[in-house]
Amino acid sequence: MTAAIEIRAVEKRFGNVSIIRDLNLSIEQGERHAIIGPNGAGKSTTFNLVSGHIRPTSGEIRLNGDVISGLRPFEINRRGLSRSFQVTNVFARMTVWENIRCAVLWATGHRYAFWKNVDDLPEVRRRTAEILESIHLTHRRDVPAGLLTYAEQRELEIGITIAGGADVIMLDEPTAGMSNMETDRAVTLIRRLTEGRTLVIVEHDMSVVFGLADRISVLVYGHIIASGTPEEIRNDPKVKEAYLGEEAH
Amino acid sequence: MLELIVISTLNGILFGMLLFLLSSGLTVIFSMMGVLNFAHASFYMLGAFFGYQLSRWIGFWPALVIAPLLVGMIGMAVERYGLRNTHKHGHVAELLLTFGLAFAIEEIVAMIWGRSPMDYRVPAALDFPAFSVFSTNYPAYKIFMLAVSALVFVVLLIVLKRTRVGLVVQAALTHPTMVAHLGHNVGRVFMLVFGVGSALAGLAGVIAGPSLVTQSDMAALLGPILFVVIVFGGLGSLPGAFIASLIIGLVQTFAVALNGSLASMFGPLDPGMGPSVLTDIWNVTIAQIAPILPYLLLVLVLIVRPMGLMGTRET
Amino acid sequence: MTDTATPATNIPTAPRGNNLRFYGMWAIGAIALVVLPLIFSSGGALTSFSLIGISIIFALSYNILLGQTGLLSFGHAVQYGLGGFMAVHLMNAIAAHGWFIPLPLAPLAGGVGGLAFAIVIGWVMTKRAGTVFAMISLGIGELVASSSLILRSVFGGESGITTDRTALPHIFGWSFGPQIQIYYLIAFWLMISTIAMYALTRTPLGRVCNAVRDNPERVEFIGYDPHVVRYIAFCLSGFFAGIAGGLAAINFEIANSAYLGAAQSGLVLFATFIGGTAYFVGPILGAILVTYLQLGLTSVTSVWQLYFGIIFIAIVMFAPGGIAGIVMMHRPLIRAGTLGTVIPAYLVSLVPTLVLALGVILAIETVAHYAESQGSAFSLFGIPFDTGSPLTWAAAVVLIVVGFLVARITWRRVAEAWDRATTVARERGYLA
Known about the structure:
The complex is a heterotrimer of chains A (about 250), B (about 325) and C (about 425).
Chain A: E1 5-14, E2 17-27, E3 32-36, H1 43-51, E4 58-63, E5 66-67, H2 73-78, E6 81-83, H3 96-105, H4 122-134, H5 150-163, E7 168-172, H6 180-193, E8 198-202, H7 206-212, E9 215-220, E10 223-228, H8 230-235, H9 237-247
Chain B: H1 2-33, H2 40-58, H3 60-86, H4 91-113, E1 129-133, E2 136-139, H5 140-162, H6 164-174, H7 186-208, H8 218-233, H9 238-257, H10 262-266, H11 277-283, H12 286-289, H13 293-304
Antiparallel strand pairs in B: 1-2
Chain C: H1 15-39, H2 43-69, H3 77-97, H4 106-125, H5 130-150, H6 152-155, E1 161-162, H7 179-201, H8 204-214, H9 216-219, H10 226-252, E2 254-255, H11 262-275, H12 282-300, H13 304-318, H14 322-329, H15 331-336, H16 339-372, E3 377-380, E4 383-386, H17 390-427
Antiparallel strand pairs in C: 1-2, 3-4
Helix pairs in contact in C: 1-7, 2-7, 2-10, 2-11, 2-12, 3-4, 3-10, 4-10, 7-10, 8-10, 11-12, 16-17
């Protein structure tokens, strides 16, 4: 079976600084994969590279076997990869309902249509309502996204990310800034919503990582020093030295 | 022909330096505050009219100092009481505020001084030919304009390299998001930068007024060219603004000086043909299309390099 | 028609209940268009209505860019003017060749003209949004306006190109000579265009335009190319601007380079923004007000454009939502029943604010008349003033200073009353 995401010898330089050096990573279909590492290790840069936000200086990235490095974000998205952002990145002046609906439109094939009434598309309405229900925001459907609470915006962010039905979902620190209770809720939500899909997640909260991930990769200074099951990572001396020893308790 | 080239080059560099006096302030303000000051050319016009009025009352030399200071103060007031309050509504609102201001300033100037050109004369001390090239006398006043522009250029460079505010401005040019983290005195730095930028525009107006036409539509005529310069050079790039100023200055000046058309080069079209777009284009002289050349350059650069010559910034 | 473009209030599960109100609004609008000239039948009123109709279409087309997609254009008159020229050339061709195309179809040619230009140049223009788009639109505007003076065979140079609207084939026995017939022609296209542009806000593209306006970066990650979205919005906006231009050409029986110029572009920006860009009805209100002021003020004062500038600056600084924004702000208060608590504060602040405005008007008029001929006399609201007398100048200064100082206090009171009213409205669940 082809890997969902295959990163081969990717390098990213800004000027003469290498943020990512010789990055190799393979993520299987249906796997829940967490990327961890100290601050500034290049986790968000990796996300940006894979999702097409920035282009790699060299190397190759494949999605379900097709080369996607060098494509624009919307082209990659149309091939079935969707990502969320670390800093909440919603459509602030639009209602919650509109936010989700816009994220559903391309996938339901309505594209740039200016001859269809958007309220008369049953499939769009059904999917929007379904996603709204699953992220528990149905009661807030008519509130402009900019007026939601922080935790609600984070949930909306996840909702927008999964709405298009992509089979590879990348979440960038989905629980950052949340209270313990909110985090638990979010983890349950993520687990349920990514059922049967491939999930790549960057997370600082180790309980989330070890509770959620099938496999974990440890990124240090733009390079993956270890990759394996949670058990293997926990016992890997290199990881203990480079990362867990310093930051985890 | 050689005479034309020498004179046009001189005039082109002069016009280019004048444009840079304006575009440098505009660029620095844009880089620091994210605001494109639509009224920048209006400050230039205010400089010219203040210069004219003060010259009549107290003479050109005091006017050369006082008029830019007045314009600078107006600029600071605009920043303090206008832009700072509008900032929370975003950059479009800020741009619209300066657009409304440009419109209002033009109407106020027209209301006070009328819509016909002013009799703004070159000061007597500079009213003589500096040297002659072939048969053309080159006026001393233009040399003076060139000298003032060059002086300002050098002073700006020193300020940027050597002072604290200069360092802040430089940092803002390369790292636009950093300005937000400068701390509580950022408001004063903004006001100062806006004031200095406006004063420079005012200075350009005072010295350009006697040489070009001082009239209430001068801002509306120069403004769009100014915006072409900074988009052409790449928004937020000072070297880009400099190069673009000179290019546009030279292109405009040379085009005005050239009288050739396709008809004069390849001979007239068959007179049997009626008037059409082809005959229009065939007969138009380069001097006649001079006003649209900057915009054609803009379209070209956008197709080839959407970021502008030296631009790195998305918005 | 008062329904918002964004945020959407017409929620998909409950539109049926609102249907009657919704279609009622449109029916009232249509009936008003038919009945208006019967009530105000003077020639002047008909001319005004015609001009207002044209500027409503123009302003609505502009709001497809500004309000819906977040594109600030300083050159929207280009599509308007090219539409006008297209219509004039078509009308002249119809008359010359004796084609059987009646006049009511000519605005469509204008639309096609605006659309064609947008299709050709739009792709390059919409590559980038924000400030860069604003500057490019300004540059393209200047380019086309200047070129129109060079390409005399198409644009007729300074004088423009004239046409005779009565020379086209007549239908229903209408010659389209009398202004009343032109009014109904404009009203017809106004209705069609308004419905079409309203419908556009309710399409997948219309919604994605809002998303591009709010956050173009994020749009790329839900499968859309923001450049394509901006481009299509630009083209559709150009089409409707062209229709407005075509109607103007029919109305005036001429198209000239002023149609394309910066002043025309500025005017539509003023109208749209003053009316309010966040609501569909905003540009309609703005177009009515600005056209009305334009027609009314020119006969009263020589510096009417300055008043425009001041009104515009005041709106940008104090009410960026425009007139529609101000009105809509009160909707939750009305629903919560707390509107009554702010009205006294409004009334109190009205007096000093009017004094301030009066002072500004007096100052402007005094300066304007003094500059024209020193020591001349003029009258304002029936009161005679002498520009040579220091008393006049002092009166203006006193009105402004006192008006401002007192008004500032009352404005603070308004803000406090407003805060209280919205707090209550929030508690009662009418505000998020």
